[in-house]
Amino acid sequence: MSDDSDFRCPVCRARQPLRETCRRCEADLHLVVRAHRRLVYLKSQLAQTHANGEKERERQIITELRWLVPSYGQANVNTPPPSAAISAGAGRGLRGWW
Ligand SMILES: [Zn+2]
Predict the structure, then answer these.
(1) Residues 69, 40, 18: CA angle, nearest 5 degrees
(2) I want to staple 49 with a disulfide (CB 3.0 to 4.6 A). Which of 6, 58, 72, 75 is the partner?
């Protein structure tokens, strides 16, 4: 995934490190920060559950990832992407979101 310096404020588009208040327009970004933290956590859990072969948990994580990033996996919400695509493209569908 891209690092935090690629983040742009969704209000004024100022590029900045991810933080709870925009440096330029002072928009409250705490929900964006929470969503980002959850996304990072889910991606780490997805890799772990995939490695452990926990298919049901993997499917639950993918569903939640798609709630956070609808383009995740670029497929129907009810159809998880192939496992190989999960590992190879875990961050690909998220690029540009930050
Ligand atoms: Zn801003």
Answers:
(1) 85
(2) 58
* pTM higher than 0.85: no
**C-alpha dihedral, 33 to 69 to 40 to 7, nearest 10°:** -50
- Domain segments of the chain: what residues? 4-91
Q: If you ran DSSP here, which 8-state letter would residue 81 be given?
A: P
Q: Is the pLDDT of residue 79 over 50?
A: no
| Nearby residues of 60 by Cβ (< 8 Å), 6 or more positions away | none
Ligand 1 mean position, distance from CA 19 (Å) = 11
Q: Is 8 helix (H, G, I), strand (E, B) or coil?
A: strand
Shortest CA distance to 8 belongs to which of 85, 82, 71, 95?
95
